[in-house]
């Protein structure tokens, strides 16, 4: 039984089906190129877990983030985020995409078997790099196992270790992160297995009855 939330599961399957039939996905105005399928799936994951699919127009203080950073859109922090400014859907897309593309490039550098992974495995790893410091993944058992040539079903469950945030100065297990890592571990371990889930999902959508096994 899939533990991926039904709303997110359906969005991911619709996106995967769109890849199969060549459907057009959202691209911001003046954006020159469409990102990889893995990045598009990772952005859907981030949208669900960062803001439940809603773009947040005005920056807010992330009280669970390290240093309580000023945050906007789907988890975007940094010098681009200006207090009091309104960020449109296109603004958010550009900010998020640049960070997802950097997450993808970092993953490609750190995982030496990257191009052997299918799109679900790649998307789950990109989500990790978007949401976590790259250095913590670089020194992880997850990366060591992956680079040793272990199959994803061996190292994907390691994703579920990153479920702690800082609350009132203390490291705390956060339900939202537990759910997010449960999802990415499943996508990585099960949906990515020999492309099995991808084929079933697409056939299910074609038949109007997509279900997660």
Structure characteristics:
two-stranded antiparallel ribbon, 4 strands, 213 residues, two-stranded antiparallel sheet, mainly alpha
Shape: globular
- List low-pLDDT spans: 204-213
Biggest sheet features: 2 strands, antiparallel
What is the terminal separation in angstroms? 6 Å
Radius of gyration in whole Å, from Cα?
Answer: 17 Å
Mean pLDDT: 86
Helix content: 40-55%
Summed up, the helix count is 9
In percent, how much strand structure appears in the residues?
5-15%
**Biggest sheet: strand arrangement:** 1-2
What is the H/E order?
Answer: HHEEHHHHHEEHH
Number of strands: 4
Instruction: Report the structural category.
Output: mainly alpha
How does this structure look, described?
Helices cover 52% and strands 6% of the residues. The model is unreliable at 204-213 (pLDDT under 50). It has helices spanning 6-21, 37-51, 89-110, 119-131, 134-138, 141-147, 152-155, 175-191, 196-206; strands at residues 60-61, 70-71, 164-167, 170-173. The strands form 2 sheets. A two-stranded antiparallel ribbon has the order 1-2. The chain has a two-stranded antiparallel sheet with strand order 3-4. Strand 3 and strand 4 form a beta hairpin. The protein contains 9 helices and 4 strands. It is mainly α. The chain is globular, with a radius of gyration of 17 Å.
Short synopsis of the structure:
The chain has 213 residues and is mainly alpha-helical. It contains 9 helices and 4 strands, in the order ααββαααααββαα. It has helices spanning 6-21, 37-51, 89-110, 119-131, 134-138, 141-147, 152-155, 175-191, 196-206; strands at residues 60-61, 70-71, 164-167, 170-173.
């Amino acid at each position: 039984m899939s533990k991926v939330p039904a709303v997110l599961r359906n969005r991911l399957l619709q996106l995967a089906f769109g890849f199969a039939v060549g459907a057009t996905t959202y691209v911001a105005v003046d954006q020159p190129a469409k990102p990889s399928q893995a990045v598009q799936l990772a952005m859907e994951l981030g949208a669900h877990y960062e803001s439940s699919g809603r773009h947040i127009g005005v920056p807010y203080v992330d009280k669970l983030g390290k240093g309580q950073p000023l945050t906007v859109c789907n988890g975007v922090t940094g010098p681009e985020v200006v207090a009091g400014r309104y960020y449109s859907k296109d603004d958010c897309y550009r900010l998020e995409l640049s960070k997802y593309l950097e997450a993808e490039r970092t993953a490609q550098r750190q995982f030496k078997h990257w191009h052997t992974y299918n799109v679900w495995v790649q998307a789950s790893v990109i989500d990790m790099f978007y949401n976590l410091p790259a250095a913590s993944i670089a020194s992880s058992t997850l990366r060591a196992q992956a680079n040793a040539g272990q199959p994803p079903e061996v190292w994907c469950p390691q994703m579920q270790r990153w479920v702690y945030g800082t609350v009132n100065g203390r490291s705390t297990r956060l339900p939202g992160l537990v759910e997010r890592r449960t999802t990415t571990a499943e996508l990585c371990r099960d949906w990515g297995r020999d492309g099995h889930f991808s084929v079933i999902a697409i056939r299910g959508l074609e038949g109007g009855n997509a279900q997660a096994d």
